[in-house]
Amino acid sequence: VQLQASGGGLVQAGGSLRLSCAASGRTFSSYYMGWFRRAPGKEREFVAAISWSGGSTYYADSVKGRFTISRDNAKNTVYLQMNSLKPEDTAVYYCAAKYSRTHYYIVSEYDYWGQGTLVTVSS
After folding, report:
1. Model pLDDT for residues 75-89, shown as the tens digit of each residue
2. Residues 90-110: pLDDT tens digits?
3. Phi, psi (degrees; rounded to nearest 5) at 69
4. Phi-psi bin for 61: left (phi > 0), alpha (psi -120 to 50), beta?
5. What is the DSSP letter of 8?
6. 92 - beta bridge partners?
């Protein structure tokens, strides 16, 4: 599967952005989907994940209550709604896909990655 992330940009602290990740192929619903991010000088870290049907979602503590992951299997797209953004949310955001549920928070467990979209939050 090929993944294309979009929706990044520059936003002031407290603002909102919605990221999208469009997937190619006809088996999108077979993949667990995740969002990760890499801030300058830091390792790539888990942000959120969503199950095949969208019935289960998981979040990093740092974004819980502010970010919402969702998916539309009919459109082969996963979303990340980001509210109450903080300067520390500044990073390149990546979407990723994997077949199984296990270890959804681990970078190396994902099979496919998008190219990343930059989110910059100004103070």
Report:
1. 999 999 999 999 999
2. 999 999 999 988 899 999 999
3. -100, 140
4. alpha
5. -
6. 38, 118
